[in-house]
Amino acid sequence: MKPSLLLSYPAATLCLVLAVSAESRPFASILKQLHIFGDQTPLRDNPVNQAMPPAGEVSTGVIISDVIGKTQNIAIFSGLTRDIDPVADRLDDASKNATVLAPDNGVMRGLKHKPWEDPQDYATFGKNAYDGGDGEDRAHQNLRRFVEAHIVPQSPWKEGEKVKTLTGKEVWYESNDGKKKIQPGGIECFVLANTFARLCSGSRGCYLNLYLKIGDPHSSTSLHNSLAMSTPKFDGGDRLICETCGTQFDIPYDQAPKGCRICDDPRQYVPANGQSWTSLGREKGKHRNSFEQDKFDERIWFITTEPKLGIGERCILLQTPSGNVLWDLITYLDTPTIDFINSKGGLSAIVISHPHFYTTHLEWAKTFNCPVYTSLADQEWLSRKDPYGLRKLIKGNTEIVEGVTAVQCGGHFDGSMVLHWDGKLFIADTMMSVPSGLYHKDRPPGTSSYSFMWSYPNMIPLPPAKIHGIWKALEPFEFTATYGGFPGQNVQRPDLKQAVLESMKIFVKSGGHEDAAIFQESM
């Protein structure tokens, strides 16, 4: 591979930028291209005279882990990278570019908290926060966040270019009055060397920059403060979450009310063992989110939580030409989920179908710095104020990004929405896919594909007028696939829109409403 930016925050910090080549080159060879000025201990060889490779000379890169592993003054951080498998794999892979922001040993020793510690964990779990299996899991997740906050999956990295770390934090560097500073935070760095060498016969090259940072390990402008803690520190870590529906409230965990207003609504329920509460901080390390690509459309990803937290719905990532849109939400948000979504290009918008899936939506929107769209008609069910200005209330039909339209259908809730994109309809539970609709070949007349309920868990049907309202909202849109709110609810066939209308008529007729207006509708 080739060197990467090893940059850091406080006190005498060495930073090295490495680009990546798919071929290897002896470690000593690349070090001879360096000319290090200053009192910092040289990496290995410290030649006085530099020489660029002859034009056309073919040389290849080293593995980044080799470089940082043999650089004594960043040995502590280097050792941590080997403990995080995704990072170690990247730094060992000569086919992947990376920029490493590496604090030196003095900085690491001067940190107020160890890299695997999170003050919120102590507040939540007490002094034994890292005891036992769960404690070890928490410590490892914290350490992973710390390390990944110092890895940028890109190199070369040009001045002023905004890039994201593996945790999704946006950083860049700039020059001012002859000084280089890492932003945000204005971390001052001194350029010690700036060498470019051709590493392969093509146009790819290795940019090798060396920085030296002088500062206070506990300074509020440290890279650690401005960068490493940017991932789920969730300031919502202690906010109350209903375990049954997954809704987050603007209430501290230790001030839980008697009941959840979402679950006390007749559409939802309180379990037999009574109301129970949790928080993101308390659930950390107890769940994992899985990512499944749609087998028919590689632009679509399903994200679910195991074991489930809340209702058990899925959210769906749509990779559209106009930006990524996340349809509906799950409660649990962790670093691997953030990394996965960022690896797909981040988010341009989040759209939520109805209040049962509001979950931790402001945590998601803040994390991905994107708007989250909910229905104006359902605003009474919002359980958190929006201090970030990221929530957008919409009504009717709203284009989220080009080609992606939120459609207010009503029914289950007055503001219940579906999402239309590229001949596909993402329906949540505005209407529910039913088992008889999954296999449709040679099915007899009267076989339904969808159900329409005011309450699904309590099996209270929608009245005919509400079902007719859903049809009128859908009528202008063409679709041959629907994606429900839960795993296994994907339905695809050419006559699917007709199947929706037929299902509405079957549902209404079975309730004894044979004169309902829906029977006047046709394709």
UniProtKB/TrEMBL annotation:
The record ties this protein, via InterPro entries, to: FAS1_dom_sf, Metallo-B-lactamas, RibonucZ/Hydroxyglut_hydro
Q: Which domain of life is it from?
A: Eukaryota
The protein's UniProt keywords, in alphabetical order, are:
Signal
Is the keyword Signal assigned to this protein? yes
Keyword Signal in the entry? The reply is yes
The Metallo-beta-lactamase domain extends over: 312-471
| Signal peptide start-end | 1-22
PANTHER family per the UniProt record, alphabetical: METALLO-BETA-LACTAMASE FAMILY PROTEIN (AFU_ORTHOLOGUE AFUA_5G12770)
What this protein is called in its record is Metallo-beta-lactamase domain-containing protein
Upper classification of the organism: Eukaryota, Fungi, Dikarya, Ascomycota, Pezizomycotina
